Amino acid sequence: MRTAHRLNIPTSATMMFGHIETIEERMIHLVKIRTLQAEKPEGSYGFTAFILWPFQDEGTKLRRLRGIRNQVTAHEYVRMLALSRLMLPNIPNIQVSWLTVGPEIAQVCLYAGANDMGSIMIEENVVSAAGARYRFNAKELQEVIRAAGFVPRLRDQLYRFREGVVV
Asked: Where are the domains of the chain?
């Protein structure tokens, strides 16, 4: 990641949780991300967003060989997302993983610190192969955002708002 900072490549930071890690390890992960972001050179992109997603266990070796399953509740996901917003003040965008938590939890997360629901998936195979079942087209994703009381906006990779048709 230090190379990405030197090359000034915008990227996101992520944390998959809810498998074998401890609460302490989750906090260490967030502190390391915050520290790395603080070290980025002035004027460089660094992390443009942080994305938190729960372990999806279906078809994984952890589940098959060790019996480890996703134990993350909706309540825990919302709390971790809110904590991420507090612990990562130097990362401007916190994205909720609607693909893994579904529309209702994603809506709650907009009130818990998330300012982004990401985008639609044209083709996503990794997380869906492990059990994520939620799918939206652009219109449906915008309806979820509106139903939560927010206004959907189009953006680019650098989180600059775009003009365009919002359905």
From this structure: 2-147
